[in-house]
Design goal:
- The chain is of the alpha+beta class.
- The protein has 16 helices and 32 strands.
- It folds into three domains: 210 residues, Phosphoenolpyruvate Carboxykinase, domain 1 (3-Layer(aba) Sandwich); 286 residues, Phosphoenolpyruvate Carboxykinase, domain 3, CATH 3.90.228; 80 residues, Beta Complex (Phosphoenolpyruvate Carboxykinase, domain 2), CATH 2.170.8.10.
- The strands form seven sheets. Strands 1, 4, 5, 6, 7, 8, 9, 10 and 11 form a nine-stranded mixed β-sheet that branches. Strands 12, 13, 14, 15, 16, 17, 25, 26 and 29 form a nine-stranded mixed β-sheet that branches. A five-stranded mixed β-sheet has the order 2-3-19-24-18, with helices on one face.
- The longest helix has 17 residues.
- The chain is globular, with a radius of gyration of 24 Å.
- 51% of the residues are buried.
- The structure holds oxalic acid and manganese (II) ion (MN).
- The site of manganese (II) ion has 2 residues, from loops.
Length: 612
Amino acid sequence: MPIIAQNKDLNAWIEEMQAHCRPDAVYLCDGSDAEFQRISSQMVEAGSLIRLNPDLRPNSFLARSDPADVARLEHRTFVCTTTKDEAGPTNNWAEPAAMRAELDALFRGAMAGRTMYVIPFCMGPMGSDHALIGVQITDSPYVVISMKLMAQIGTPVLDLLGEGEFTRCLHSVGAPLAPGQADVPWPCNADHKYIVSFQDDGSITSFGSGYGGNALLGKKCLSLRTASYRARNEGWLAEHMLIVGLEDPAGETTYVAGAFPSACGKTNFAMMLPPEGMEGYTVKTIGDDIAWIRPGADGRLWAVNPEDGFFGVAPGTNGKTNPNIMQALTRNVIFTNCALTPEGDIWWEGLTDQPPAQLTDWQGRDWTPEAGRPAAHPNARFTVSQASAPSMDPARADLQGVPISAFIFGGRLSHTYPLVFQSRDWTEGVYWAATLGSEATAAAEGQTTRRDPFAMLPFCGYNMADYWQHWLDLGQELANPPAIFRVNWFRRDADRKFIWPGFGQNLRALKWIVDRVKGRAGAEEAAIGEVPGHGDLDWTGLDYGRDRFAALMALDAEELAREIADHRDLFAEFGDRLPPALDEVHRRLSESLTPGQTGDHTRSTARQVAVG
Ligand code: OXD
Ligand code: MN
């Protein structure tokens, strides 16, 4: 037995896994910079990483994945609760003992010819009551160097752990090497892929994929699926949310947390720069993807970002959409599935207006703009430490987290939903979050909405209806619950053009949200909640006329009635587990929006400023 940590359970587990997975060597990660340099250099030599030109992108690398291992695999993701009902209709469920037996067989000898790395890691500020410690055992050096950027890892975490409890995260790419067999740049298993959360003992097992959320087990697996289950039992929330502070010209910062399904620009929103005219405001980033939120003794909710790095989608990112992240990406980055320039730098669609004349694409093939296929994979990623982003708020290290004044939920919808509205109360807010979704275009039916409740569809570690009930219950307990808002940056006009410019201009909606919770901004009563009038938003520096604003905010009774009716299909999936309070909101909204029955209640002109 070559190594050793002081934690008896950890030692025993390492020994057990070594005997079972039969690696050639076992290595306990110390988390040092020297270790990162050593492992990344070994990977470059082995051909599984390309070192980028150090003059252009110092200490940065490009990894090219197997073309069949490019994204999270929702259909291969399993939540193993004792009963199927506990996992609910939106999760793949497997009986825990049967799944353990299946995985045991796959892991037997799975690490042959490879090194088994042991990575102690901490999610959340080290030393915070909010933090959780995990240990990932993996045979992927790509995971080791990525985890170094995504979390605190190594010796300091082991010291903090002492004899304490940790989450067991077991991972193998599932590609054992026979003696003398040459390796491939990106080993994975073509036939078997599993990403499994065992909720009975809180452990996580992943087999066959080396990619992102399938393999970096501290992220989606531990911080959302495992943590959400734990949070329900312990009275807190683990959410797929960004956390930002808006600092006003007087220096006061107000924090909000926001959930958006994918492709809604969450990372951009988390670090946006103010638009012209609003330069006195600063958006301060706490996190771009995950929030752990707990009730504080003061009756408010307090949030930490469990992550220490960004694992962001590269295509579309540029100096206009996200100048802050572009600055973070100048050095110390692992890029995955981006294109390579002849000068040894990376490129992706949208990085520059004009593509370079010549590239090597994400699969290593020659590429020119005439190739007729993207040069970078659409899900190409960057992995970079959050410490590199200039917008980061030092408060992200605060052990108790930051106080949350508002929740924001937003999908990508070309119709029906206005730029922003405030729910009348917590229960209605939970309703609007539960029915969140983004548009999917199905050729035959026109636009349909793919529901993504709380943006948690792939990440909720138990029955989604129970999760809604947990939110409802928690709201009841809070003396000072955050206000809840829905936003929609993506409304289009009859010519399918976006009505709202988005990006930095979204700060105007954020400012209204903050002003609402401070009791400083007005609103009008509407059927769906409280909406700003033109005069309620700050237009300094932007000429945005009343007609355009009216189109942006229009509430069409028939469209809304159709939307509310559609919620019934979602709710029906959960049978009698659906919280009665949500059913009641649904009934109320349906009645008030039935045209002709109760008159047009989509909008009244009652104005009020203070928030209850
Ligand atoms: C992500 C996701 O990668 O939500 O953050 O899929
Ligand atoms: Mn995410």
